[in-house]
Amino acid sequence: MDKEEISARQAGQVSLGEELVVDRLGFGAMRLTGPGIWGAPNDRSRALAVLRRAVELGVNFIDTADSYGPFVSEELIAEALYPYPSRLVIATKGGWNRPGPNQWTHDATPPHLRKAVEGSLKRLRLERIDVYQLHIPDPVVSFDLSVETLAQLREEGKIRCVALSNVTQEHIERARKIVPIVSVQNRYSFADREWDYVVEHCERNSIVFIPWAPLGAGRIAGEVLDHIAKAHQATPMQVAVAWLLWRSPMILPIPGTSSLQHVEENVAAASLRLSREECERLLGVPQLVGTR
After folding, report:
1. Tell me, what's the pLDDT at 28?
2. What is the structure's pLDDT at 263?
3. Among 246, 233, 237, 236, which Cα is nearest to 274's?
4. What is the per-residue pLDDT across 243-253, written as a single tens digit (0 to 9) for each?
5. Contact 259, 22 (CB under 8 A)
6. Residues 159, 150: contact at Cβ < 8 Å?
7. Cα(166)–Cα(247) distance, rounded to whole angstroms?
8. Which residue from 31, 66, 65 is spatially nearest to 51, judged by alpha carbons?
9. Which is nearest to 68 in space by CA: 218, 199, 212?
């Protein structure tokens, strides 16, 4: 790949609702925390440098959550980037807690979501969160009630746009009856397409689809991915991101890393153009199914 000009702007743009336009290659800030997505990073200065470098490379959409650390990822974003560039959109999430390394617990009750939003506002040093995502439906709380709470917080001016994560098409349509939904974030990659029908639903309804684990396919890279990467003098991870950009104009990849080298490689994927034949060959890779 030609590395003379590395910029997220090469990926084009996408609209989050009617108010926000971002470049179509973002940054996922989960892996800036400590091992197991728990605690502070081993090298705080490097984590801050990665965030700053991502923005220098044109990234203007950063995805995080209060459970990453917990709280650490949001704190790092503010420390590295505040006062924020005018075009930067920060999306965060609530409703899923992090009680220990590699552990998740649900709490999407209205009181918790209100507390979570207030906490994110404080940590991110914001008066209003641009995109706030329900991290995952809570099996013991009414989904509609959780979404209604976020709609109320939007009306109060604490959230600009409401979004969802880890949901089905049914969830999306139920939520849209309550409040406009600007994005959906589910697990997705060229080798993990369980949510294909949700991608297509989002495209039909002008909802941005944000794939988490967009590089997860690298675990089963295999011959096809390696062959395409070598043909473009690219890494397998860059090919995986380029495939996502090809898959749908509503897809907004958010590859994350704690490495300066890798953030540059990931952003460079914005300019990688795969042929239709190459993309269709990747569709034939055996599927990988898993959960977060």
Report:
1. 97
2. 97
3. 246
4. 999 999 999 99
5. no
6. yes
7. 19
8. 31
9. 212
**pLDDT-flagged residues of the chain (< 70):** 1-4, 215-222, 286-292
Sorted by where each begins, the domain ranges of the chain are 8-283
Q: 154, 133 in Cβ contact below 8 A?
A: no
Q: How far is CA 40 from CA 31, 45, 143, 145, in A?
A: 11, 11, 32, 33
Q: Residue 132 has which token pair?
A: 């706030």
Helix (H) or strand (E) holding 183: strand 181-187
For residue 283, the model assigns a pLDDT of: 84
Select from 3.30.10.20, 3.30.450.20, 3.30.70.260, 3.20.20.100 the CATH code of 8-283: 3.20.20.100
Q: What is the per-residue pLDDT for 9?
A: 96
Catalytic residue status for 68:
yes
List Cβ neighbours of 38 (8 Å cut-off, separation of 6 or more).
69, 98, 100, 101, 102
pTM of the entire predicted model = 0.95
| 59 Ramachandran zone, left/alpha/beta (phi>0; psi -120 to 50) | beta
